[in-house]
Amino acid sequence: MTTIMVILHVLAAILFLGPATVATSQFHVRALDAHNGNKQSEGSAKTLFKISQSYGMLSLLVPLLGIAIMLLNWSHFKTEGQFHAAIALSVVAWGLLLFVIFPRQKKMMGALGLLEADEQAAKTYEVANWDKAKGQLSMFAGIWALLWVIIAVLMFI
Fold first, then answer.
1. CB 151 within 8 A of CB 96
2. Which distant-in-sequence residues (6+ apart) come within 8 Å of 133 by Cβ?
3. Nearest-5° Cα angle at 35, 128 to 56
4. Burial 90-127 (b: 16+ CB within 10 A, else e)
5. ∠ CA(143), CA(108), CA(110), 5° rounding?
6. In total, how many domains does the chain have?
7. What is the rounded CA–CA span in Å between residue 3 and residue 74?
8. Is the pTM of this model over 0.85?
9. How big is the chain by its Cα radius of gyration, in Å?
10. How many C-beta atoms lie closer than 10 Å to residue 2's C-beta?
11. Buried (b) or exposed (e) across 45-74, using 16+ Cβ within 10 A?
């Protein structure tokens, strides 16, 4: 059973974290291009936003499967501090994604008028400084990616 869970854990990391990382690291570039009038970038930003949202949410399976593996083999993992640290960092990474990256992406999409009609009508979205917003989103996406690299290293120590 543990082997199957480890396989699912690794596959979830590859299939969900990879696309989410690429999408979060590219979204702000395309959103700024769209703000500057590039119509093709509007479609790219919309696609990257949807990938960030959907694959980002699915990436929750990675730490959940990791916790399940730990619980299945608690006697072995209870003294392995790197796994506890990896889970703590994944909670931080997930909090960053949910409470910092997603809202900033949504604000940029709303300011571009690219959200779904009901979301667009529910609130007024405005980005005061697009270059600053792009830089901040770039920083947070980079931190999110770095956290997952650190987590991966912790898994193999």
1. no
2. 28, 104, 107, 108, 127
3. 85
4. beebbebbeebbbebbbbbbbbbebbeeeeeeeeebeb
5. 145
6. 1
7. 15
8. yes
9. 18
10. 11
11. bbebbebbbebbeebebbbebbebbbeeee
Full DSSP string of 73-109: THHHHTT-HHHHHHHHHHHHHHHHIIIIIHHHHHHHH
Taking the alpha carbons at both ends of the chain, their separation in whole angstroms is 23
What is d(CA 66, CA 86) in angstroms, rounded to the nearest whole number? 9
In angstroms, the CA 59 to CA 13 distance is 7
User: Would you give per-residue pLDDT tens digits along the chain (157 residues)?
Assistant: 889 999 999 999 999 999 999 999 999 999 999 999 999 999 999 999 999 999 999 999 998 998 899 888 888 888 888 989 999 999 999 999 999 999 999 999 999 999 998 888 888 899 999 999 999 999 999 999 999 999 999 988 8
Contacts of 68 (CB under 8 A, 6+ apart): 5
Three-class secondary structure of residue 114 per DSSP: coil
Q: Give the integer Cα–Cα distance in Å for 94 and 92.
A: 5
Q: Give the domain extent around 79.
A: 2-156
Indicate the SS3 state at residue 41. helix
